[in-house]
Amino acid sequence: MTTTKKTLITAGEITNLCTCTAYDENTGDYKEASECFGYCWSDSVAEFGEATMELRHSNETDWWSVENLRLWNGDISGHFKVDKVEEMLIAMTVRSEWRMHYEVYSDRVEYSLSHHDAPTGSETTLRPVTEQQRRERGL
Fold it and tell me: Where are the alpha helices (DSSP H) in 15-130?
């Protein structure tokens, strides 16, 4: 990526695969649970929402630009408008199983999305679209 680095706010990992854990009183540790009640996706969305809160609140247009998302037919870029964290994650990812490593900066999110068409990930960037850019691009 040819972006100028600004201060890293946070980094993390998120997946749409649910691995639930349960506390094992015998060992005093957590282990993979045999049943999952769906809380882990909600928790992951909330965690990503916290990580990107400052960036999302600074975007006055709710328009976003994704650059270099690797799909089966190459890297694509595009725009979308969302105001909810879960919708943002859906727009940033693919309709299959995926794992994302991300870094949040004050002006963007840089992430690598690993999935069946890009098992080693990709260098993808999410940026807010300014009002001027929105008008210029006809959004």
Answer: 39-58, 85-92
Number of C-beta neighbours around residue 43 at 10 A:
13
| pLDDT per residue as tens digits for the range 30-46 | 777 666 555 577 888 99
Which phi and psi angles does 86 have, rounded to 5°? -60, -40
Q: How far apart are CA 79 and CA 129, in angstroms?
A: 8
Of 98, 102, 92, 93, which Cα lies nearest the Cα of 115?
A: 98
Among residues 48, 131, 43, 135, which one has the least CA distance to residue 87? 48
Task: Pull the structure tokens for residue 103.
Answer: 């870094």
The domain segmentation of the chain, as residue ranges, is 8-137
**Predicted structure pTM score:** 0.78
DSSP state of 4: P
Residue among 126, 127, 120 nearest 98 (CA): 120
Instruction: List the Cα angle 15/126/120 in 5-degree steps.
Output: 50
